[in-house]
Amino acid sequence: LIRLEGVAGCDPVGGGNLTSKRPSCAPSPQDLSSRWKQLEDRVASSRRVDMTLDGDTANNFLLISDDLRSVRSGRIRHNWQDRAERFDLSICVLGSPRFTCGRHYWEVDVGTSTEWDLGVCRESVHRKGRIQLTTERGFWTVSLRAGSRLSASTVPPTFLFIDGKLQRVGIFLDMGMQNVSFFDAEGGSHVYTFRRVSAEEPLHPFLAPSIPPNGDQGVLSICPVMNPGTTDALVHSGEAK
What we know:
Protein name: RING-type E3 ubiquitin transferase
Domain B30.2/SPRY: 31-225
Helix content: under 10%
Radius of gyration: 17 Å
Subcellular location: Cytoplasm
Number of domains: 1
CATH topology: Jelly Rolls
Structural class: mainly beta
Largest sheet: 8 strands, mixed
Keywords: Cytoplasm, Metal-binding, Transferase, Zinc, Zinc-finger
Strand content: 25-35%
GO molecular function, one term: zinc ion binding
CATH class: Mainly Beta
Shape: globular
């Protein structure tokens, strides 16, 4: 058992209890088809982001690759310069660039990681102390726990159910529509969409790798962009929520 003193994983829910959030009235198949087609069209017209990790925001226990595209948690605390933008307690890091307008798409390979948090956050989120991943706190994220429990950071949290295991997560941010959507980039299906995402200030990509008790830290890797400015992989099935 490995304990990292003075650090904490990101808390995806208040109090730690997950609840299933289901609509009281299900949309018709025609409505779902129309909504999904509109989402596909927006993803297709988005700009694929050549994203890197912002080391100035990284918690001191994180290990970041030389190309700034992969991150995992380590056992040794680095003595990096204390900065206002650095997360001092929660094990997470922000991506670059930040977004103020437009449509943007990127993918993260989560590999065999059993715990992670991915999404976007407001530029003004608290960086000091333990953070709570909720939309009320400025985080729009999807979280995996114990290798199978997938949830969205709504209040109350939303349990998500998908076929198979996510290995590559596609994230689509539409600042104009104030939506952020998550996809199974390999399986070609929609996972979840947050609506009414605040566009009043810049948003940053957000990544938090696991700190499992057995010390087998998983790696999160930003997928390389083959054709910058375009979307290489599109999804073709799923339900827009």
